[in-house]
Amino acid sequence: MITNNEPMPPVAVLKAPKTSLALIMFARKVHNALLNNPTFPSPVPALSVLEAHIDEFEDAESNAASRTKGAVALRDAKGRRLGETLSLLRAHVQNVVSEGMAPADAVAAIKSAYMSVKKTTTRSFSDVSVKSADVSGKVLLAAKAVAPGAVYVWEYSVDQSKWTPLPETMKSRTELAGLNPACVYYFRFRAFTRAGWKDYSHVVSLIVR
Question: How far is CA 140 from CA 137, 165, 168, 187, 198, in A?
Fold first, then answer.
């Protein structure tokens, strides 16, 4: 197993303003940045949804100035929905750049979506490990538990381009058999918690016995 530390993949973050007018301007810039962006050809949610939520929030903000009954509450509800839509788009951007994109390219892609890049740190290899089992072609995979009740999805690859998922498990340990001896395999995992999907772990490699 390779034991050198690897940097975590770049993480997209939203630095959305708190005030209504600034949030509207920010959301429009995200919309325009993703429009016809070749790296993100089919954003999820669709940009038409984002545009509609921006317009609805802008109208609600104008109506709130009149102080009519319920106008402020409606404005706040529309603002929350716009924030949720932006968060979903951030998740989409993160999913795209996490699929085998080189770190420098991932940073550029995130910035092209008018999003910021979280400062990365080095992740310890104690978080995830892989070792050969007693049976030829079989490996044992283990990760540090992410959260109570988390679902773990391991993936393996021979080229770090195409990844094959293993069955989901509620435990942070699993095993994989039937691999070709004397070949290098790469492994990573992703966990799903109550807060949603976590980012992929770093990749570890092993020459299978």
Answer: 10, 15, 15, 11, 22
